[in-house]
Write a structure and sequence with these properties.
Elements: H1 5-8, H2 14-33, E1 40-44, E2 50-52, H3 53-67, E3 72-77, E4 84-85, E5 92-100, E6 111-118, E7 129-137, E8 141-146, E9 152-157, E10 160-165, E11 176-179, H4 188-199, E12 203-204, H5 210-220, E13 222-226, H6 239-252, E14 256-258, E15 278-281, H7 283-291
Parallel strand pairs: 3-5, 11-12, 11-13
Antiparallel strand pairs: 1-2, 3-4, 5-6, 6-7, 7-8, 8-9, 9-10, 13-15, 14-15
Length: 292
């Protein structure tokens, strides 16, 4: 029996459910426009990175559409240096990576959206998320969400988003690994760890988009990491807009997250744009990382 996203969310708080559904609808708008939003913009984001036309447009589209809901109070986006104030009477605060992996657009590889949803004001610890989700633009459009009730995946069809898999759990033993950063810049013990994975037959899967690489681990098990590097001990991924949502999803799927010392969800943010090393995957993989 086909179950739609709306039907699956019937037992979830009605306003939270409507927000998740709305983000899915916005994702479809963005997907349809990507062929026409290519090339570089003449601006840089808060991290000094040249923005792409698609980055800026996806960010603007999400913010404008979320304003219409009336239930979003503030937004923290990768494309803005400060908190974007939406509606003082709003119930939810939202974090956005509006177009994760946007550099993949030119080569038609995976991109997506990463979202965290809070009732607490931002910035706050990731453990306070009431929901997290991502939308992946691949050969199919899929939506993965958790409202702290397990992890569920939906497939976009002409009937809307329909349930593809419910209560996803990371397969054991994990099969894959995907590691960012130049190998020559990995710290020595981490390099030894990866060599051990390779010796045991783990398969490399790395596509340059966190959302796509994470999705592989969610379905096959293993580990994804953008580690602490010799030249960048703080790593690359953003704590609020990337690490927090994906950490909630991986932990809800029976896995673990870590910055190398403890669960990412327990980290107290120092600022909106903080970067951290990220290790997410099966618990046995993450425990070994922390022992290093």
């Amino acid at each position: 029996m086909i179950q739609t996203l709306k039907e699956h969310l019937e037992t979830t708080d009605s306003e939270l459910a409507s927000l998740i559904i709305k983000i899915g609808e916005i994702a479809e708008i963005i997907s349809a426009e990507l062929p026409y939003r290519r090339g570089k913009a003449d601006t840089k984001n808060v991290f000094g990175e040249v923005q792409l036309v698609a980055d800026k447009w996806a960010d603007e589209c999400l913010i404008e559409e979320l304003k219409k809901t009336g239930i979003v109070k503030t937004i923290v986006s990768e494309e803005h240096p400060d908190i974007v104030k939406i509606n003082e009477q709003g119930k939810y605060n939202v974090t956005l990576d509006p177009l994760d992996g946007s550099s993949n657009i030119e080569t038609n590889n995976s991109v997506g959206i990463i979202v965290g949803i809070y009732k607490k004001d931002l910035p706050t610890q990731g453990k306070h998320q009431v929901a997290a989700m991502y939308i992946l633009y691949g050969p199919m459009i899929t939506l993965v969400y958790t409202a702290r009730n397990g992890v569920h995946e939906f497939l976009r069809t002409k009937e809307g988003f329909i349930l593809k898999e419910e209560n996803i759990k990371l397969p054991e033993p994990g099969q894959l690994y995907g590691i960012g950063g130049l190998r020559k810049e990995w710290q020595p013990k981490f390099k030894e760890y990866v060599e051990e994975l390779e010796a045991k037959g783990s398969k490399l899967r790395y596509g340059g988009a966190f959302v796509g690489d994470f999705n592989q681990v969610l379905h096959y098990g293993g580990i994804f990491s953008y580690p602490a590097l010799i030249t960048k001990p703080q790593g690359k991924l953003r704590l609020l807009v990337e690490a927090f949502p994906m950490s909630l999803i991986i932990e809800q799927a029976g896995g673990a997250s870590s910055n190398g010392e403890k669960s990412i969800l327990e980290i107290e943010p120092k600022d909106l744009n903080q970067r951290i090393p990220v290790y997410v995957g099966n618990k046995e993989f993450i425990k070994k990382i922390e022992k290093l």
